[in-house]
Design a protein that fits this description.
Blueprint lengths: L5 E4 L20 H17 L3 E4 L16 E3 L4 E3 L10 H10 L5 E3 L11 E4 L2 E6 L5 H13 L3 E6 L13 E5 L2 E5 H4 L8 E5 L10 E3 L2 E5 L3 H9 L3 E5 L2 H4 L10 E2 L1
Parallel strand pairs: 1-2, 4-5, 7-8, 10-11, 13-14
Antiparallel strand pairs: 1-15, 3-4, 6-7, 9-10, 12-13
The structure holds citrulline.
Citrulline binds next to loops.
Length: 258
Amino acid sequence: MTAFKRAIVRPPAANFAQGLTSVDLGTPDVSLALEQHARYCAALEQCGLTLTRLPDDARFADSTFVEDTAILTDRCAILTRPGAASRAGEVAAIEPAVRANFSRIHQIQAPGTLDGGDVCQVEEHFFIGISERTNEQGARQLAAILAQEGFTSTAIDIRGVNGILHLKSGISYLGDQRLVLIDALAGRAEFAGYEIVRIAAEENYAANFLRINDRVIVSAGFPRFEARVRDFGHRIVALDMSEFRKMDGALSCLSLRF
Ligand code: CIR
């Protein structure tokens, strides 16, 4: 399991509610989102991470979802090319913080598109989702970069899977070769060989969590999944994510960890 030391975060800006969303959960309350973001940052620190806190950036209403702008590994960073036109400028905005920490930097090139939320690292292997945001060229470019850096990868087409924006809305790695998957992904051949932990349909949102060092950060309000993680012997931090969920965001989206 990767040992994480640092993370990059950016709080939501005043126009957070004008970002993209595909869910119908109402308009987020920005001041509550800021409180939830502060608790999220505190949880990352509790996991031992040192944070780079970027200022809010109202040029991009979705810019708190920093995960989509880069893939960070212990060997290199890859700047992405987000699939949503309104988010394209977020990459240049994150680039200085990435350059401050990485000397080997790759970049996804047009016509490829790739959102970090579609990339799930499992030890030395990466699952790359092909989605409404990440196209085949973007996935192929990332696979080639990862191969050059000594990693392996598998592409997973999620375009037919309802209810998930990104691959990582439906999969997270718990460590110890355990993959947590929503039912719609659990039977896929690409995940053979791992221990599969299925999420109950009514708890699908819980599929996006963070295993960081000796803790697991989960979304509050999903008792079956939380009990399951506890049974595996993990220490849990549960966070209310209600306002980010309204904008299609989840735990992993709010930080770049390395
Ligand atoms: C978007 O639609 O791009 C944002 N409102 C949500 C991005 C969530 N990011 C992620 O899952 N990595």
